[in-house]
Design goal:
single chain; 7 helices
Length: about 190
């Protein structure tokens, strides 16, 4: 099942990344991801203004709505990731001047373990975000899927949405569905 594979890979990659990145950097990055999820729509138009000349989009209306939100999310997440790296470097340099080797080694071990934990929390946030996206988009693509099968990413999205019905994650994804009821009414009218 695609969903279990995606969630498993997210947890594996982000836990290992958090372990090597450290807890201080991980907490700031996690804060950035949470802020990016909540404010990427509002910040998206502003961030897309910076990238509009370099990132042209076509006439398809879906891209006019999605690209600014994705640009806002990436911009906010990257800014906080850079800030986390800078803060982590500053803390390590200050501690290297004040502490002996044993204290620094203890701090590094604690920071890595804390980074592993923040990596797991970040993976949870990304997993819920991914489930919500699959749920929302799949609600509109699965009813219109072709009988002979779809191709590429659309086929993977439809398969993931159908598989989501058989998992315990369906209630979590449905809880984060912010799609207006009018969209569902229009979908039902088209069917």
């Amino acid at each position: 099942m695609w969903i279990y594979l995606l969630i498993g890979l997210l947890f594996l990659i982000l836990a290992v990344e958090g372990y090597f990145k450290g807890g201080v950097n991980g907490v700031i990055t996690l804060l950035g991801v949470i802020i990016a999820i909540n404010f990427s729509g509002a910040f998206g138009g502003f961030a897309y203004g910076w990238l509009a000349d370099k990132w042209p989009i076509g006439d398809f209306p879906f891209w006019h709505r999605v690209v600014p939100t994705v640009a806002g999310f990436i911009t906010i997440a990257l800014l906080f990731a850079i800030a986390g790296l800078v803060v982590s470097i500053i803390i390590r340099k200050r501690l290297a001047d004040r502490w002996d080797e044993f204290q620094i080694d203890s701090y590094k071990g604690m920071n890595r373990k804390f980074g592993f934990c923040t990596g797991l929390i970040t993976a949870t946030v990304y997993s819920v975000m991914m489930l919500a996206i699959i749920y929302r988009l799949g609600n509109f693509t699965v009813p219109f899927q072709q009988e002979d099968g779809d191709e590429g990413m659309l086929a993977m999205l439809n398969e993931s949405r159908v598989q989501l019905e058989d998992t315990p994650f369906l209630k979590i994804a449905a809880a984060y569905d912010t799609t207006p009821d009018l969209h569902y009414e229009i979908r039902d009218a088209l069917l």
